[in-house]
């Protein structure tokens, strides 16, 4: 069997088109354009790429945006004071602090200083907590995008065994919660969450009906680790040195794509799978923030 491809680029394009229509309708009703403030601390080439993609997506859907570039010497106090100003600015609907932050800054502290009603990344403990108990919240964009992919391709997860490799706060943990808790056909899975201390990873991955991999380890998942017919969502984005490429690297996921796809029923490519959905869901969240849809005032 060769897997069918879950085309995140295509689904993201459709999602962005819907958001564009919703933004137009919102503005036709007399509202200003939604506004996303991006905060970028220090210099990190990968962050620049991600922020560039988010900025282009905003333009595409009619969301206004600005990127505030702050030096990597900024203190936690100064950064939090800047965020507080954004919290209090009624013209700012969404605030996104691009991660990772320089080592002297605690991402937890900084995220917690964002007004949870503007936390369009869905990383604030208020949003994570509400997600966990099934209350409306801003959903972390990557996990929310994965659920959209299941819905788009009518891949039900109810009653299935979903194995998540990676337990980070931004991907692994929230997708395990959504897969386990979400009502209807695209949730209600039995979930296993693995991390780098998991003994015998294969023992878990081999029993997965749905396998979500977000470890940041190229070629971690090999065909002998999965069963025939598994649905594979590869979240990993790894820059692997490649002299044949102009940029000097190739982007790879966490799965050995060519061989795993021969056993899977569905699989996401890297690039072009989960990544574009993450950006599309950020657009959705920013519009929800502008409309006060999650936290009505
Ligand atoms: P992270 O480093 O915060 O977390 C990695 C997790 O994987 C940890 O829980 C760690 O214990 C686990 N892990 C690492 N090695 C492992 C191993 N050998 N076996 C089992 N578990 C292992 O990373 P993150 O922020 O969650 O990102 C994970 C990957 O997903 C990265 O490649 C990142 O670039 C990518 N990512 C992609 C998107 C997207 O939109 N496609 C969004 C966010 C992150």
UniProtKB/TrEMBL annotation:
InterPro entries xref list? Aminoacid_DH-like_N_sf (IPR046346), NAD(P)-bd_dom_sf (IPR036291), THF_DH/CycHdrlase (IPR000672), THF_DH/CycHdrlase_cat_dom (IPR020630), THF_DH/CycHdrlase_CS (IPR020867), THF_DH/CycHdrlase_NAD-bd_dom (IPR020631)
Per UniProt, the keywords (alphabetical) are: Amino-acid biosynthesis, Histidine biosynthesis, Hydrolase, Methionine biosynthesis, Multifunctional enzyme, NADP, One-carbon metabolism, Oxidoreductase, Purine biosynthesis
Q: GO CC terms on record?
A: cytosol
Any GO molecular function: methylenetetrahydrofolate dehydrogenase (NADP+) activity
Family assignment from sequence similarity: Belongs to the tetrahydrofolate dehydrogenase/cyclohydrolase family.
The catalytic activity of this protein is classed by the Enzyme Commission as: 1.5.1.5, 3.5.4.9
Q: Which GO terms fall under biological process for this protein?
A: L-histidine biosynthetic process; methionine biosynthetic process; purine nucleotide biosynthetic process; tetrahydrofolate interconversion
Q: Where is the Tetrahydrofolate dehydrogenase/cyclohydrolase NAD(P)-binding domain?
A: 140-292
What is said about its interaction partners and assembly?
A: Homodimer.
| The protein, known as | Bifunctional protein FolD
Q: Which pathway? A: One-carbon metabolism; tetrahydrofolate interconversion
Q: Tell me which residues make up the Tetrahydrofolate dehydrogenase/cyclohydrolase catalytic domain.
A: 6-121
**Matching CDD domains:** NAD_bind_m-THF_DH_Cyclohyd
Relate the protein's function as given in its record. Answer: Catalyzes the oxidation of 5,10-methylenetetrahydrofolate to 5,10-methenyltetrahydrofolate and then the hydrolysis of 5,10-methenyltetrahydrofolate to 10-formyltetrahydrofolate.
Q: Where does NADP(+) bind?
A: 166-168, 237
Q: Which organism is this entry from?
A: Fodinibius salinus
Q: What is the lineage of its organism?
A: Bacteria, Pseudomonadati, Balneolota, Balneolia, Balneolales
* Pfam families linked to this entry: THF_DHG_CYH, THF_DHG_CYH_C
**Reactions catalysed:** (6R)-5,10-methylene-5,6,7,8-tetrahydrofolate + NADP(+) = (6R)-5,10-methenyltetrahydrofolate + NADPH; (6R)-5,10-methenyltetrahydrofolate + H2O = (6R)-10-formyltetrahydrofolate + H(+)
């Amino acid at each position: 069997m060769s897997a069918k491809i879950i085309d995140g680029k295509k689904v993201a394009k459709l999602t962005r088109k819907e958001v564009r229509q919703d933004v137009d309708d919102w503005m036709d009703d007399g509202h200003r354009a939604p506004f996303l403030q991006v905060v970028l601390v220090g210099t990190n080439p990968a962050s620049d790429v991600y922020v560039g993609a988010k900025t282009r997506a905003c333009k595409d859907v009619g969301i206004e945006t600005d990127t505030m570039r702050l030096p990597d010497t900024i203190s936690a106090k100064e950064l939090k004071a800047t965020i507080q100003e954004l919290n209090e600015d009624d013209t700012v609907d969404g605030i996104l602090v691009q991660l990772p932050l320089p080592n002297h800054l605690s991402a937890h502290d900084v995220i917690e200083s964002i007004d949870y009603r503007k936390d369009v990344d869905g990383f604030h403990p208020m949003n994570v907590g509400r997600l966990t108990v099934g209350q409306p919240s801003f959903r972390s964009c990557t996990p929310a995008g994965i659920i959209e992919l299941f819905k788009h391709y009518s891949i039900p997860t109810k009653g299935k065994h979903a194995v998540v490799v990676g337990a980070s706060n931004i991907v692994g943990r929230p997708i395990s919660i959504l897969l386990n808790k979400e009502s209807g056909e695209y949730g209600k899975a039995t979930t296993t969450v693995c991390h780098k201390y998991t003994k015998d990873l294969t023992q878990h991955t081999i029993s997965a009906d749905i396998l979500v991999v977000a470890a940041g380890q190229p070629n971690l998942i090999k065909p002998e680790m999965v069963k025939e017919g598994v649905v594979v969502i590869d979240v990993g984005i790894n820059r692997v040195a490649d002299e044949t490429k102009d940029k000097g690297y190739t982007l790879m996921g966490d799965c050995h794509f060519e061989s795993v796809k021969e056993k899977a029923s569905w699989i996401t490519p890297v690039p072009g799978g989960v990544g574009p959905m993450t950006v599309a869901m950020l657009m959705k969240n920013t519009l929800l923030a502008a409309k006060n849809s999650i936290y009505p005032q």
